Amino acid sequence: MTEVVNAGHPPTPDTSSAGAPAKLRGRLGVPAIVLMVVAASAPLSTIGGNVPIAMALGNTTGIPVAFIVAGVIFGLFAASFVAMSKYVTDAGAFYAYIRESLGRAAGTGAAVLALPAYMATLIAVSAYDGVILNELITRFGGPDIPWWLLTGLVLAAVAWLGYRDIDLSAKVLGVFLVSEVAILMVVDLVIVVRGGEHGLTGDSFTPQGIAGGFGIALLYALWGFVGVEATAVFRDEAKDPDRTVPRATYWAVGIVAVFYAFTSWALVEGNGGHDAIQLATDDPDNFMVNTAGKYLGMVGRDLNTVLWAVSVFACALAFHNIASRYAFVLGQSGVFSTKIGKVHERHGSPSNASLAITVASFVVMGICAALQLDPVLQIFGPGGGLGILALALLWLLTTISVVIFFVRRGNSTGKVVLASFATLALAAALVLVVSNLTLVVGGTPTLAAIFGVMPLVFFAVGMLLSRRSTAELAPISSVG
């Protein structure tokens, strides 16, 4: 279990001997952090959702290459913020990095930007899980239950786990993640052993395979990496964070890139190469489960569906934990009520921040249900789109901050060059998201324009709220 540690004094829930706010501290090792953040990327959901949509809209079988390119982009990004994490330490992660380089106002703006980004994604995937659970229940002869009721149960379970110590969440996510990866690997291996639909090829990696809307494929590949960047958020709860966080980050990016590239290639091969595009276009929702049924039978198909619901739940829990830690740091800095920045004495968790995220999630979901919004088209699509747009902006601000930080320090040419490449890559990714915003949020150009402005509004509001930061609190970052 995590505990609150204060230098020079017995543990107390809120303050240290120096008057600084108490920090979250636990025993998370590299595997636990990797499981936490890879679970946020929801492997089964990414493969079952993003891959067929990317193939259908992009008219390309080059999705494995898109995942590799996305992995390179995230690798550059990871190397950049990991380099800075040696000098700036805080549970607020990117909040701290941006604040150190661009000032308190920009740092607070980034934290306020990150919070609704992760919350929007949390609400989006929770609504989607309600739909999946209802389909699962009716498939096995159960009653037709409203999606919002099932989503409420998902949020309640997430709230219960999120309130407690991080080790419990890590264990739950670990079991879920291993299960969903296992079913995907079984499907992959059976496809490879059988030689696919028409024999194994490397067409996905040829110019002809990549041709088409590769930009769309790359966009959905980048979307599949969301959550992997959050390793730094758990710094205060990691064992030996200077070693654990960098290793966990590189492992997470590498595992996601290789696994997604291999699995998407196997799905293409298992559905006849170029023929897979038409199958994905005809029925994108069931592309993955139909493939599982083709190679593993009905038992495999049903198991895949069950684990899909589990995957989305794990994703919701991971995003709840990330959002809670951003709210926690904003509470500790005085931007939000300081009560939100309190640490649970027994669990060592950001319990009040977790409760705040839970209440906000139920309120938003209640409004969506009252308005009778479609859970997929009007909640999942727009919510996920808003999340990826806001996070793309946050990633870009982070790498810009890394460049500025090392330029100021001097004698860090290599790190400046590395962060500069990451900045260019993420700037291109942000342009890609913005240029396809109508597709990303799923709606009219007017809705896309509104959603396009929202991250800027969040950032601006955060900059204004920075004036509320209490002077008596210790600095958010600790620079060495």
Automatic annotation (TrEMBL):
GO CC terms: plasma membrane
Record keywords, A-Z: Cell membrane, Membrane, Transmembrane, Transmembrane helix
Membrane topology: Multi-pass membrane protein
Region called Disordered, residue ranges: 1-21
Recorded GO MF terms: transmembrane transporter activity
InterPro entries attached to this UniProt entry: AA/rel_permease1, APC_superfamily
Transmembrane intervals: 33-57, 63-84, 105-125, 145-163, 172-193, 205-228, 248-268, 306-331, 352-373, 385-407, 416-441, 447-465
Family: Belongs to the amino acid-polyamine-organocation (APC) superfamily.
Job description of the protein: Probable amino-acid or metabolite transport protein.
Name of the protein this chain belongs to: Amino acid permease-associated region
